[in-house]
Amino acid sequence: MEIKELYKEYKKFVGKSVETAGWIRNHRVSSNVGFIDLSDGTTIKNVQLVYGKETEDFEKITHLHIGSAIRVTGKVVESTGGKQDFELEVEKIVLEGDCPEDYPIQPKRHTREFLRSEAYLRPRTNLFNAVFRIRSLAAGAIHAYFQSKGYIYMHSPIITASDCEGAGEMFQVTTLDLDRVAKEGKVDYSKDFFGKKASLTVSGQLEGETFAMAFSKIYTFGPTFRAENSNTTSHLSEFWMIEPEIAFCDLNGLMDIEEDMLKYIINYVLNNGKDELEFLDSFVEKGLIDKLTKLVNSQFTRITHHDVIKLLKEADVEWQFKPEYGEDIAREHEKYITEYFDGPVFITDWPKDIKAFYMKQNDDGETVRAVDLEVPMAGELMGGSQREDDYDKLVTRMKEMGLNPEDMEWYVNLRKYGSCTHAGFGMGFERLVMYLTGVENIRDVIPYFRAPNNCEY
Amino acid sequence: MEIKELYKEYKKFVGKSVETAGWIRNHRVSSNVGFIDLSDGTTIKNVQLVYGKETEDFEKITHLHIGSAIRVTGKVVESTGGKQDFELEVEKIVLEGDCPEDYPIQPKRHTREFLRSEAYLRPRTNLFNAVFRIRSLAAGAIHAYFQSKGYIYMHSPIITASDCEGAGEMFQVTTLDLDRVAKEGKVDYSKDFFGKKASLTVSGQLEGETFAMAFSKIYTFGPTFRAENSNTTSHLSEFWMIEPEIAFCDLNGLMDIEEDMLKYIINYVLNNGKDELEFLDSFVEKGLIDKLTKLVNSQFTRITHHDVIKLLKEADVEWQFKPEYGEDIAREHEKYITEYFDGPVFITDWPKDIKAFYMKQNDDGETVRAVDLEVPMAGELMGGSQREDDYDKLVTRMKEMGLNPEDMEWYVNLRKYGSCTHAGFGMGFERLVMYLTGVENIRDVIPYFRAPNNCEY
Lengths: 457, 457
Hints:
The structure is a homodimer of 457-residue chains.
Chain A: H1 3-13, E1 17-29, E2 33-39, E3 47-52, H2 58-62, E4 69-78, E5 86-97, H3 112-117, H4 126-148, E6 152-153, E7 159-160, E8 172-174, H5 178-184, E9 198-200, H6 205-215, E10 217-225, E11 238-247, H7 251-272, H8 274-283, H9 288-296, E12 301-304, H10 305-314, H11 331-340, E13 345-351, E14 367-375, E15 379-386, H12 391-400, H13 409-413, E16 422-428, H14 429-437
Parallel strand pairs in A: 3-5, 6-10, 12-13
Antiparallel strand pairs in A: 1-2, 1-4, 2-3, 4-5, 7-9, 8-9, 10-11, 11-16, 13-14, 14-15, 15-16
Helix pairs in contact in A: 4-7, 4-8, 4-14, 7-9
């Protein structure tokens, strides 16, 4: 019986024997009695095993090491006082796998740096149990949300010969023998696996649009890659993205969806991840649950980039970066704006020169129908836009930005074959998990992080 | 209003005006009346628009091209006879995006080869609408199944420095400038992005095991890669895999899960993909729905590899490949076995020399606790095993197979730090989609296929 089930149903089993299995998290022995904290990872909670002189193999049990895997038979007893609701009076313990005393994960506080260096063991700690459980719940919520609304889950290709944004450093994918390339002194892509240069995708959006033009509503949820040399707490070389794309939808409709989706995910996690959030609220980010609850009850503000700059200029603040019309905004500005409106803010209609080629141009000739969602304490959580649906405007803009429309004929053709108003956004999954857990280093919210000079496991 | 919703609720709207939008699939005009088949992709069904001389802009509407995107306002009218339940009497049509007459997707039968060459347009056909909708439903079912049972969804790394099976050709991932490598005549991995050679994963299993040792039950669902030079209808260079891993679970428990999961997915698709399955049953695989219904009602057989070989040897069949103890079985054998038992068959306890190093060794010294699931008309749909949980046996076997345990210290350490009985399996997602849809070429069940010399989009 799983420990999670046991917690749900222990009242039914009081006075009865149950079987469970797990790993020893802590073990305290006195002369006549011993206590074992057992975890099977199905919940963040441990179950306490109690044994005494009268227990079969008392002596042997006292020597069980922390980290060992055991199977237990024990009688469910309601606890009197103490933190547990119940405990198990041990009837029998079978050792499945021992664990040496130099086991790196001991019942004490480990630094996150240390745990990052033992990443394959860190999910055995309470912190990472909570983080990866919330991550899993959030992913489940995302699929549940889009599936229930009839979106088609589309697997965008990972290896690609296109470069979405015309920017973004990409990883090359090859089967060429590099030693041979070095020896022969030339690169012959005709001999490479795909017969041409190929890379890892930086976004599934463009392919996503092709599916939106057939199914009306699609979403992707897959890994994306950036070969940027940034060793920071907020960048990964490999991360997961959600990229919905919706036909017959404009920028306002898109913001409705972003807001609805985010509130759904957070509600789902609040409802299904109570124990984990309480732990994270106590030990990682004080006020986490209030922060999340406030968000689901808030109304998101919608304001143009122009009006944001105006507001920032009028603010009585000594800015490190001076806000300017036509320019991007800095972290300090994002922070000010979300505090000013005391909640999430959609900033729309950005200067076209700092945004991607595929965004719908406004009639002013200066701005595009882009939207960034700024969330208090999270910064930019989603970025999206209405897409340019006019063939000529798209092609002209691509050329202005140094892109060759012929390299993406299939993409521009979407504007030739039944083009329509459509919009989409991208959300970095790890950014979301950081927000949901309060964890501040992005390397701590993904099982095995990839960064410059870091590719362990 | 989406066409899917309209089909569900049209009775409520009879006699009333509704608005919808979509793409013109077919258009027939006579002198006084016109018929448009409109699709928005939210269902495989079209809605029929009817207009006549009295309709606003009659003349203009008659010239609307196939493939165009339009918005329509029309009155819901119950159909008398014909195939539709209802139709829309057009009140107003607004053209969103025209489509030239040389649009490649016309209302006629296109070959799959042709559609593969226009892969970005093929989801606009009924066949691919059905296929990718079933694909999405199946993915949704998989997440719903595992999430509801408390499994943790784990994102295994895509870029890796380990090679799971010690086999399988891998794609290399690099940021080295190959022209420079050629020019300088040497490869310096210290200058590569990760400071060492890195590749695309062939399986998330080994990393999945690290999480199973913390959460008891996990699953992965992500892309995996094989750089094999096989241009067949059943291989892809990039495909999606589901890899659950369960602690405190033996081979019998694993088979229970495999059977339960497969039946759940198929039931889910039968319940939620009726229209699509009916279409596929009519036009792709006659008897598809019966095949799937039979599977969910069947009892899966469990038999050892040894007994399978015995059975094959005793069969009165002229084999192309002679069945032998200690050897793999061929397609013709798989087919015979599933027909013999008239249902899915778990074949267990395979000769160790044809299986991977991490599979649990049986006491006979000859076989391992592996299991392949053979499904009628699908062949091998899942492969799994109980994992070797004994440190010494694992290390010895790795050395016998030419692997260096030190290269995967973290993996072997799982057998040192609280090892336990555990098991897991892998299911290729595209193989499953082929089975669910009856489509026979694997390139037709993934949005954009990757194969030798094929990397379009």
